[in-house]
Fold:
Amino acid sequence: MTQLTQFVLVTGMTGAGRGSAAKVLEKLGYYVIDNLPPELLLGVVETIQKSDDIDKLAVVVDARSREFFGGLVEALESVRDTGVSSRILYLEASDEVLVRRQEAARRPHPLSHEGRLMDGFDRERELMRNIRGRADIVVDTTTLNVHQLGQRVYAAFEDADSGGLRASVMSFGFKYGIPIDADMVADLRFLPNPFWVDELRPLSGLDLPVSEYVLGQPRAEEFLEQYEKLVALLTGGYLNEDKHFLTIAIGCTGGRHRSVAMSEAFAERLRAQGVRTMVVHRDLGRE
Structure:
């Protein structure tokens, strides 16, 4: 009999990309069930555990469950009591983007009650507040296309049963807002800005001259060392709490030079420690 080893709950805001994330998990070998009422969750897991060929299960549960959604936390605790390794993937995006996506799909919001579309999103955010706080990984899809979302999900759940901590290092520009899916936020605006160096301005942190300029600053190495120690300090606590995903956001003014160069360098440090790490440059290309 095949043992069910991995369970992923996919949830989050309407229009944030739950369906796209579920398709990626399906490609990774997960048996995917969409729009399952929470009260049926434990029964499904117990049934799958008796299966001969299913070892990974992903279930999409969201606001379409309406009044049944309130029982989701209790249902998740029951699943975890079975001993199955469980993860929660939560997807969200800005209100503006969610409204635009929903209007493009020409579908009403399941909680709008024939009112404004935004009313439905307001009710949904309140409904989701508790489960978002319990999520193992939160992905903000505001600026992501389907391909980029797929990369994030693939990096997080490929070989998920291998254990250990997984990290996502994200560069961003403060002028575009702090990432809402970050566990840690670092501010690099204390370093000299390559933007004011004429020959570096048109380049980005991915270019060697900018990288050398940023990493050559007196306090750059100190920054890398201190954050490397901080991640090492957090790793044990995260794993003890069965949390395996850490998102570190590193920001500068526009997200083009300092944060990009430092994110690449920091990711290399983490990989050298054996942490599976991906890099996302959220705002690179905006300027």
